Amino acid sequence: MSEGTGAGAARTREVLEGERERTLAAVRALERDREGIVESARLSAVDDEHDPEGATLGFERAHVEALLASARGRLDDLDRALERLAAGTYGVCTSCGGPVGAGRLEARPAAALCISCA
Ligand SMILES: [Zn+2]
Hints:
CATH architecture: Orthogonal Bundle
Order of helices and strands: HHH
Strand content: under 5%
Number of domains: 1
Number of strands: 0
Oligomer: single chain
Largest sheet: none
CATH class: Mainly Alpha
Radius of gyration: 20 Å
Number of helices: 3
Bound molecules: zinc ion
């Protein structure tokens, strides 16, 4: 019995794809935030020689960049989980080859490592 087929896999795919859609929406929203910050920084640099907002904008931008990097990493994890599901290796630890565990997958559907390897 492969985990890559059957009703369990279909449900897992639904969970992963739903999570992927939400994460993708978050990435897009953060990209818009970043564009807004970049644009504000550009305008304030043009309009105001003192640039009183420069430091705040720089901080905000760094914060958004960090959130964006984390959301993109999560998107990668979900893509790889979907690939493993298609290949029939979902739920198999990518490090030791042991089972990741149903409870762990429930909490973190994109988990690639079992609890001892994580
Ligand atoms: Zn492992």
